[in-house]
Structures are given as C-alpha cells and as structure tokens.
Amino acid sequence: MNQERLSFIALHSISGVGDYLLKQLISYCGSAEQVFRTPKGKLMKIPGVGAITADAIASEKSIAQAEKEIRKAEKYNTEILFYTDKNYPTRLKKIEDAPALIYYQGNADLNHPKTVGIVGTRQATVYGKENVEKIIVELLPHQTLIVSGLAYGIDIHAHKHALKNNLPTIGVMGSGMDIIYPAAHKETTKKMIEQGGLLTENAFGTKPDAHNFPARNRIIAGMCDALIVVEAADKGGALITADIANSYHRDVFAVPGNLGVTYSEGCNKLIKTNKANLYSSVKDLEYIMNWSLEGKKDTKPRPTAVAIDWENFDYEEKKVLAVLKEKSPVHIDDLMLRTELSPGVLASLLLGLEFKNAVESLPGKEYRLRLT
Fold first, then answer.
1. Would you call the peptide bond into 39 cis, given omega within 30 degrees of 0 as the criterion?
2. Cα-to-chain-centroid distance, residue 338
3. Given this model, what pLDDT does residue 336 score?
4. Each residue of 275-297: pLDDT tens digit?
5. Per 3-state DSSP, what percentage of the chain is helix, strand, and coil (rounded to 5)?
6. Which of 28, 108, 126, 270 is the most buried (most CB within 10 A)?
7. Are 82 and 100 in contact (CB under 8 A)?
C-alpha cells in the first residue's frame, strides 16, 4: 500500500483537519507521510494546529480509518484523487477552496475540453424540462460534459437527457459514494457510471445531511466552464451555485421565464442584476464563451499581433504580455495562475494594457494581444 496516499487519506479523516489545514500541513512538513513523523511540538507551531489536532495526528486511529477507506474504495470501484494528482480536475484545482481529496467512479474525462453545469429547482415545470432538453440537444455539436447535482427536478432531468443523447454526464453528490441520494435515482446513476460518472468529496458512509449540499454546489461551480440555471425560485440551491460560480469567474447563464411565475423569479433576478447572461439558445453561450465548432475551416487571412515595444511597459505588465505572447487567447484564470498576480491587480493591469492598445478582451473572460 502506498504510504503517502494512505497518510493523505488519514489526514483527511481527522476531525478538524479541513481542506485548507491539510494543504498547510503538507506544505510545512513536505509530504503527508512526513506530517505523521513530525513531533507534536513542531506540529503545534503550524498555524491552525492545536493540541487536539496534534494528538489526533499522533494517534494511529486515522491510519486504521484510512486503510478501511481504501478497502471500501476498492469494493465500490472508486478512485480516490488528491489535489496533487495529475488527473485531479484542473478547473477544480484552480479554485481557492478546492477539496483536497475527491472520490470518483466513472469513465468520463474530468478534464473534458468543454464542460457545462446545468442546475435548477427540484420542482421543475414542463417549461423547465423542455428547456433542459433543448439545451442538451443544442450542446450536442460541442460534445460537452454535463455536470449537475443528481437532485430531483432540473438536475436529474439534465443527467437523463445527457444519457439519452450520448453526452457524458457527472453527478456531484452531497453524500458518500456508497449512499445514492435520492435513492430513486439509483438506476440512473448506474448508467451514468458507464457514460460519465459520480463524484463526491465525502467519505464512505457520509449521509446526505443538509450542510453537505452548499459544499457540493461549489464543486459543481468549480467543475464547469459555464453554468446554466434553468428554473429557480427567488431563493434556493441553484442561486447559491450561481453566486459561487460568479465568485470563481465562471460564466453564468439563466433561462428567462414568465413574470409572476415562482420558479422563474430566480432566473429573471439573476439576469436583472447582471449576475447571469440571458440564455435563449446555444448561440448566446457560443458568443460569450467564444466557442466555435471544431472542423469548420476558416478561409479568412489571420491577422497578426501588434509588435511589443517592451520599453513602454513596467515589470508586471511585461509578465502579462509575456504569457499572452506565448499563447493567445488566455482565460483570466490561467493568466492569474501563470503570472501569480492577485485578481484585483491583474484586472487593473489588463484594463491599463487595453488603454495602451496592447491587449484586447474577448467573450468568455479571455484576453489576447491586440491584432493588427
């Protein structure tokens, strides 16, 4: 048994060691295995580690628990992915509160080229269901991965119609991998495992308690390029997911509905408050996301980027320009990752570079060097 992986799971199982502290421990100690070899006194010098946590690390109970967890993963044919693994979802890894560990069962590529989240009310109407079906069919040419939360209503309808149209679909769960919730969707999840998958951050045996679902929503938001809210009341999980997606710089869309209809109020509010783009057809998403269909030949001559006079820019501006010169266009999230600049600083720099006619913004929060 790989001792490093066993140690990672053991740390994850300790009460009080959340995702952030787990990453802190590994950062300070060098590896998960080394955390368990570090004396209690040194552990307590790590920010966030108190006597109770240090004692729990010193105990062998977490190692025994980790061994049981690995055996359960083997029984349920489940892969346990750490945020340091290459096949951990790249989109998810970029968010600040990414889960340190996830459980995955299925065959879909977690780094699929195009991923769309579809969420909405559990009380889906005929209008909502029809729009889900329309969205799925319109996304077929893009062969997108569909992500949702396996809940009643809009979520399960999105999963079922993705399966029907041979699109891969992943359900993000608010319970352990061994507890399908709602139980009524168990047959659908069997098909999803063959054409997509199931994903959770919760250990085996975790019940679908209410507090798990807001955390589940952040994974849906973090997994997708774009999030579409189909139907939602003025309050609810779908709006929480939309807010989280906006905080992650994901593009959010909402299907508008009739005024005065309860389950259209949330979508209309998102659009009215500029928290979502209006979704009337896939063309709206294609424009905002700057998505084009592969295989279409472009016979127009390609313009070239403007020549850069490096003397006219300061150090941080040069960092941005150097990334854009190497590869263009680049999504703002990738720019943040590669330049190691904070969101506020990067946004200010990009605006300044646009004023200097060196950079231009594109739909989908992408940027490139200005073209001649």
1. no
2. 19
3. 87
4. 999 999 999 999 999 887 754 44
5. 45, 15, 40
6. 270
7. yes
pLDDT greater at residue 274 or residue 333: 274
Q: What does the pLDDT look like over 11-49, one tens digit per residue?
A: 988 988 888 899 889 888 988 899 999 998 899 889 889
192 has a pLDDT exceeding 90: yes
Sign of the C-alpha dihedral computed for residues 281, 242, 89 and 204 taken in this order? negative
Q: Give dist(CA 149, CA 157) in Å, integer.
A: 11
Strand ranges in the chain using DSSP code E only, listed in sequence order: 79-82, 101-106, 115-119, 145-148, 169-172, 196-200, 226-229, 251-254, 277-278, 330-331, 359-362, 366-369
Q: What is the C-alpha separation between 97 and 263, in angstroms, rounded?
A: 30
Residue with more model confidence, 185 or 28:
185
Angle between helices 265-272 and 237-247 (to 10 degrees): 20
For residue 314 the two structure tokens come to 């300061």
Domains of the chain (ranges; CATH) run 1-66 (1.10.150), 106-289 (3.40.50.450), 310-369 (1.10.10.10)
- Which tokens sit at 312? 């006219």
In whole angstroms, give the CA distance from residue 229 to residue 135: 11
Kind of pairing, strands 277-278 and 366-369? Answer: unpaired
